[in-house]
Amino acid sequence: MQPISNNIGVALCTRCNYAEKDNGISPIDYQCQAKGLHNCINGYCTSCYKTHLPYSGGCYSRHTATGFAVCAEANQYELDNVTVCTECADTSHAPRNGACTLVSASGSLFSDCTKDADRGLCTGCSSAGKSFLFYGGCYDRSSHIGSRLCSEVAGGACKQWRSSFDFTFSKAGGTDRYLCGDANNGVHGCATCRYGNGVECTRCSAGYLGVDGRSCGKDCSGSTQGACSEVVEESSSVKVLSCRCVCKPTFYNNSGTCASCTDSCAVCKDGTSTGCQQCSPGKILNFSIASSESADCVNQCVAGSECAGCGLTIDGSRYCTRCKDSSTYPFNGVCVPDAQEDAYCAIYENGVCTACSEAAFLMSGGATQQHTIQATPSAMQRRVASARHPGGPADVRRGVWGQGSSDQGVCVCEIGTVLMRGVCASTRDAAKKKTAAIAAGATAGILVVGALAGFLCWWFICRRKRASFSSSCTTLIPPSKPM
């Protein structure tokens, strides 16, 4: 038992009693407990996960008073799945493979270090060994961290740095290697980075990555908001949160700053004020140019000169479900000329599309492009992609479409099955029919499939029906009441 420093007199356990069958019980945050993500055996730890710092056989949280007594916060850097120290708080110690270790005379476990007389760091490493100097510490090339940093050592220095290790970087034309989080050369608080026209941070060790890619902060402010996703660490296979600041709705990333989109546009493509991907309520995308870099928003559906009925409302915007002109049909919720018939609608009549080509699928009397489901998350796209049935997600893929009237829903086959004679059958054995969704309708002339398949389609998908619709199957995206 020993005090961690002259200022913090806390007795530390350096080794725990352990059972033969459970030798992972080790000193972690002052208690003998399960090792968790730390590397521990026979009652003590040999290395700690990046949330903790190693000290005298135990692991201690890096953000506590004990952690700061081992290594000041400014000297802690995330490197792979561990936190390394570049200068130890106790001046009798120095970093060995990133962990503060007592430096003593020849014959000790850490004799490679030529220690600074007044500071807890190394100024050089023995040329006789396989260690190299890196940020105030000596790293053994055969150690986990040492092997990730360097592939060739000579004379106490690394002769060949590993460029693929994205926790460090080299400047253009330089031979020195720097930590991504180096406040002087890199980005303070950065864990991983790449070097192009300066250092660009790709993940912060804690907090949020700024929209400029060159700052890490505790939170997001101004016209930005936080967005986090899980990433898997390569060396530990542990899932960790990677958070960044993104531009708020109605703003876009313009070379590292958030600028306003054009009026009525809620989400626009990064790098341009136009190129709208989602409109504000009351407006809808002009799908005739939605695939270009200059897509804009147009007024929502109004029953009148072009549209006979606005039967679909999504996120506060109305879409057309029947056109006035019999030679037009709703394409992505907007009436378009029949010049696009060959591309999207195979059969149309009375202002609605009744059968789509392979380039689109039928929805609420109109044709909807396949690519819009997988493109930007606009209101309509989210509603389409969210259609589900108990057996799995609806598979709206090319070639799977139904024929029917404008008020007819389209049930589609699940993955691994194909539509054969109106029934979803297994691709492995066409004779074994799966009870996936099938096209259904109540209008005359629709082929009625077997009672069992029809019942199952109704049971799993079509139980809800609207009073104003004649179909026995709900639409893929249920329209709201016409306004």
TrEMBL record:
Cite the InterPro entries for this sequence: Giardia_VSA, Giardia_VSP, Growth_fac_rcpt_cys_sf
Tell me the first and last residues of the signal peptide.
none
Q: Report TM segments.
A: 436-461
Q: Which UniProt keywords apply?
A: Membrane, Transmembrane, Transmembrane helix
Q: Does the keyword Phosphoprotein apply?
A: no
**Superkingdom of this protein's organism:** Eukaryota
Please list the coiled coil stretches: none
Q: Which Pfam families match?
A: VSP (PF03302)
SUPFAM superfamilies from the xrefs? Growth factor receptor domain
Designated name of the protein: Variant-specific surface protein
Q: Which organism is it from?
A: Giardia intestinalis (strain P15) (Giardia lamblia)
